[in-house]
Design a protein that fits this description.
229 residues, alpha/beta
Length: 229
């Protein structure tokens, strides 16, 4: 598949990024590229990625004085517009940029899935997500599914567990077990060696699916492994 990642632009995309979004995009791109997918990352020019980098700004917004940092959301919208205009078209766009792109996501001519990194504990945030409740989302912790179970969750990819795997594998295994128990049977996803998890999620996002059936139909594989570094 031709896959585009839209970064949040506050931080660079790299394995050393201060934000989990930047590290998540780095590892997802590395693994998907290894598996033969054509991956393009729309991010700041100081990013490092295994896929093709399209720099939408020279540096991440954290590199600038505070007055420029508010531009991160605008740059994400600009990056999404550039992804729409790319030819040949992408098969799927993966957003990592928060709430600001949800209206464009709803009107997109290309299927889009968005990963949610923040806690869903503020009524205003929940209200926004419920306005766009048909859109395909990926959770990064089981708590998000508990907070707003009626959203169109496609999978759970535990972001912090993935990033801790190399240093604390036993702790991560315990966390995975807790996540599986707490999500009432929802498959807690890693990118397995044959990409069954994420490839399925991205492919399913190309065909909008009701939340309950989307989660129940995800494939179960006993050899799921975390993304390698």
């Amino acid at each position: 598949m031709r896959i585009a990642h839209i970064s949040p632009f506050l931080e660079q995309v790299s394995s050393e990024s201060q934000d989990p979004q930047g590290r998540m995009i780095f590892h997802l791109t590395k693994q998907l590229t290894r598996l033969g997918h054509e991956v393009t990352v729309f991010a700041s020019g100081d990013s490092r990625t295994a896929g093709e980098l399209i720099p939408v700004a020279p540096l991440s917004m954290r590199s600038y004085p505070a007055p420029k940092r508010h531009l991160a959301e605008a740059l994400a919208m600009l990056a999404l517009e550039k992804a729409f205009a790319t030819l040949p078209s992408f098969d799927i766009i993966h957003l990592h940029s928060g709430l600001s792109c949800l209206p464009l996501m709803r009107r997109s001519p290309i299927p889009i899935v968005s990963t949610v990194y923040d806690a869903l504990d503020a009524p205003e945030v929940i209200k926004v997500y419920r306005e766009f409740k048909e859109l395909a989302l990926i959770a990064t912790c089981a708590e998000q599914l508990k907070q707003v179970p009626d959203l169109n969750w496609q999978a759970v990819i535990p972001c912090l567990d993935m990033l801790r795997w190399k240093n604390e594998p036993q702790a991560v295994e315990r966390s995975r077990a807790r996540t599986r128990r707490s999500t009432n049977g929802v498959r807690s996803g890693w990118v397995s060696p044959n990409a069954s998890r994420l490839t399925c999620v991205l492919s399913r996002a190309r065909r909008p699916t009701p939340p309950t059936s989307a989660l129940s139909q995800l494939p179960h594989t006993d050899d799921d492994e975390p993304m390698s570094g």
